[in-house]
Amino acid sequence: MAAEASPVSPLKNLLAGGFGGMCLVFVGHPLDTVKVRLQTQPPSLPGQPPMYSGTFDCFRKTLMREGITGLYRGMAAPIIGVTPMFAVCFFGFGLGKKLQQKCPEDVLSYPQLFAAGMLSGVFTTGIMTPGERIKCLLQIQASSGQTKYTGALDCARKLYQESGIRGIYKGTVLTLMRDVPASGMYFMTYEWLKNILTPEGKSTSHCPTLCSTHLSPGWGAFPRAAAPTAPGWPGGPLPPVPESLWLVSCSANELSVPRILMAGGMAGIFNWAVAIPPDVLKSRFQTAPPGKYPNGFRDVLKELIQNEGVTSLYKGFNAVMIRAFPANAACFLGFEVAMKFLNWVVPNFRRLLRAFGWRLEAIAKEEQWARQAVLK
C-alpha cells in the first residue's frame, strides 16, 4: 500500500505546487539551457567536430561566451509558465487522489498514485506547451548566432503573427506524450520513497494536529489542562476553552530536510528516465522551421533514427540527469515547506477569528455580571 490516509486539499496543493515550481526553475534552468542546446545542435559536417562535445563542454562554452546570464537565457518564459504549471500539476495530483478516495481515510495504492500523477500531466499540457516552445526558441538562438527574438513576450508575439495560436501551441501532442507517463512516475516515486525513508512509527501525512496550547479569553497561551482565573468572574475560573480554539501545530510530516531532498531528487530522475525520448522529439520539432516535419513527430523520429541512430533519443541525457536531482529536490522541498506553512496558517487563522468572537462573548458576560452585581 502507499502512504497513509490524509485529507487531500487540491487548493493547498495548487498554492504549494506553485512555490515548488519557482524553486525548480531557479535551481534547474542553467542545465535546462545546456540540455536544449545539446538536443538541438545541428549534425557536424564530415571531418568537423560537433558544436558541443558533451554536457560540460556546452556548459563551459556558454559560460565563457555569454556569462552567467547565458545559462539563464529564456528563464522568463518558464517562470511565467512553470510556476502556474507546477501549481496546476500538484492541483491535478491532489484532485486525482481525491477522485479515487471514497472517503478521506482511504489509502491509495501505488498504481492509483500513478494514475493521479498521469491526470496532473494532462492538466499541465495546456500551460506547458507554449512555455516550452518559447523557451526552446530563445535558448537555441544565442548558440546559432541569430537574434530573432528580444525576449519571451516578443517571441510569443512574433509566433502568433506568423502562425496564429497553432504556432504557439506547436508540439502539444509531444508534450502530452512526455508529461502524462512521466508525471505518473514522478509522483508515484516520490510517495514510494517518502514511505521508505520515513522512520518506523512516524507519519508522512500533511494532517495538522492540535498542539498543547490554546488561546485564553485574555489572549494568553495556556496549557490545555490549565484554567486561567478572573477575580470578577462568578465561580472563580473562567469556562473551559473550547477545543475549537486550541492552536494547530505546524508539523507537516516527519521527514527531515535531507530525506525530502533525496525523495524529490530521485523522483525527478525517475521522471526524466521516462520523459527524455519524447522530450528530444519535442525540442527538435518545436525549434524546426515551419513545414519541415509535415507528419509531426513521426517525421522527427524517422529523421533522428536514420541520421543519428537510436541513441539520439537520449541526447542531453547527462545534462538532464545532473539537473533532475537538484531541481526536483528543490521543488519538493519548496512544496513541503509551503504545505507546512499553509497547514499552520489556514486553520489557525480561522481559530483566531473564532477566539476573537469568544473573547467578545466573554466580555459581554463579564459586563452583564457586573450590572447584576450593582443592581443587587
Short key terms for the protein model shown above:
376 residues, mainly alpha, three-stranded antiparallel beta sheet
Low-confidence sequence ranges: 208-239, 243-252
Average residue-wise pLDDT: 78
Task: Work out the helicity level.
Answer: 55-70%
Strand content: under 5%
Judged by helices, strands and strand pairing, the structural class is mainly alpha
| Gap from first CA to last CA | 68 Å
Our count of helices gives 11
| Quaternary structure type | single chain
Q: C-alpha Rg, in Å? A: 27 Å
3D shape: elongated
For the biggest sheet, the summary is: 3 strands, antiparallel
Helices and strands, in order, run as HHHHHHHHEEEHHH
Walk me through the structure.
The protein is mainly alpha-helical. It has 11 helices and 3 strands, in the order H-H-H-H-H-H-H-H-E-E-E-H-H-H. Helix content is 66%, strand content 3%. Strands 2-1-3 form a 3-stranded antiparallel beta sheet. Strand 1 (210-215) and strand 2 form a beta hairpin. The radius of gyration is 27 Å and the shape is elongated. Residues 208-239 and 243-252 have low confidence and may be disordered.
Write the layout of secondary structure elements.
Elements: H1 10-40, H2 55-66, H3 68-71, H4 76-100, H5 110-144, H6 152-163, H7 165-168, H8 172-197, E1 210-215, E2 221-223, E3 246-248, H9 257-286, H10 297-308, H11 317-375
Antiparallel strand pairs: 1-2, 1-3
Helix pairs in contact: 1-2, 1-4, 1-5, 1-11, 4-5, 5-8, 8-9, 9-11
